[in-house]
Design brief:
This protein is α/β, with parallel strands linked by helices and 257 residues long. Helix content is 58%, strand content 11%. The protein is built from 8 helices and 5 strands; from the N terminus they run H-H-H-E-H-E-H-E-H-E-H-E-H. The longest helix is centred in the first third of the chain and has 31 residues.
């Protein structure tokens, strides 16, 4: 009976993952890794559970291969749990530098008609609160033009902040970046060019799941980074946290080494 409960739980989780992928495909600006991952995992969960329910016994008959696959799965689960724990801890313990010279808001997609995604709007609303209370800080809005976007994200971001009352003179567009690393690299270069000799202290305003990696990459680029975690839309939590696991691994291997 406990095994059956476990397998039916896997089926439930698999269905949840597939639903998350379908929802993300409908609500997001395009189909990316975050859209596909929960659904792919869901299909694997459901397939495994059904096979175990309908055909008891070892799925893999060759013992060495079975041990290797089991070990890989266990290590993968441990790795996923460890990285997610670090991501969540960073999100819940971050605090902004109250004397930072800059604010950096990484892009998070705009729709083909120029509307902000809710993820990006949440980041900008959170940044606005900080900017309203710290009138000396300059704000970088950082994001290039994606495949399905009518213009660079930075333009839409600046227009939104200006519409909320932030003076355009306080907002600096960085409109070429296509990744978190480039967000930080290009903003750091602009700081050096336009604000020579100024301490590169910055508050990164980004989604909670993104805080850990964004701060690591900012520090790699010479930015003294603190952060504020903006809320993540509830219907994208599964997608974003699963995608960020891959993002952390990628950055650790290819961008931080």
């Amino acid at each position: 009976m406990p095994k059956k409960i476990f397998y039916f739980t896997l089926i439930f989780l698999g269905a949840l993952g597939i639903a998350a992928s379908l929802n993300s495909a409908l609500m997001s600006t395009g189909v990316g890794l975050g859209t596909v991952l929960p659904g792919a995992a869901g299909v694997v969960f459901i397939a495994y559970a059904l096979v175990r329910l309908l055909r008891p016994g070892n799925i893999i008959r060759i013992k060495p291969l079975r041990i290797a696959v089991t070990t890989a799965v266990v290590l993968g689960i441990i790795s996923f749990a460890a990285v997610e724990a670090v991501i969540v801890a960073a999100e819940n313990t971050c605090a902004p530098d109250e004397n930072a010279n800059f604010v950096i808001v990484p892009g998070a997609g705009i729709f083909p008609d120029g509307r902000l995604t809710l993820t990006l709007k949440n980041r900008l609303d959170t940044a606005y609160d900080y900017l309203a209370a710290h009138e000396y800080a300059a704000c970088f809005v950082s994001g290039g033009k994606g495949e399905n976007e009518p213009y660079p994200e930075s333009r839409a971001m600046k227009e939104y902040l200006v519409s909320r009352g932030v003076p355009a003179s306080r907002i600096i567009e960085e409109s070429a970046s296509e990744s978190t690393l480039q967000n930080m690299e290009f903003c750091s270069a602009i700081m050096d060019e336009r604000f020579p000799g100024t301490d590169k202290s910055a508050v990164i305003v980004t989604s909670g799941f993104h805080v850990f990696r964004a701060r690591l990459l900012a520090r790699k680029c010479g930015i003294e980074a603190s952060a504020i975690a903006a809320p993540t839309p509830w219907y994208l939590v599964i997608n974003n946290y699963m995608r960020e696991y891959v993002g952390v691994l990628h950055s650790s291997i290819f961008e931080l080494s």
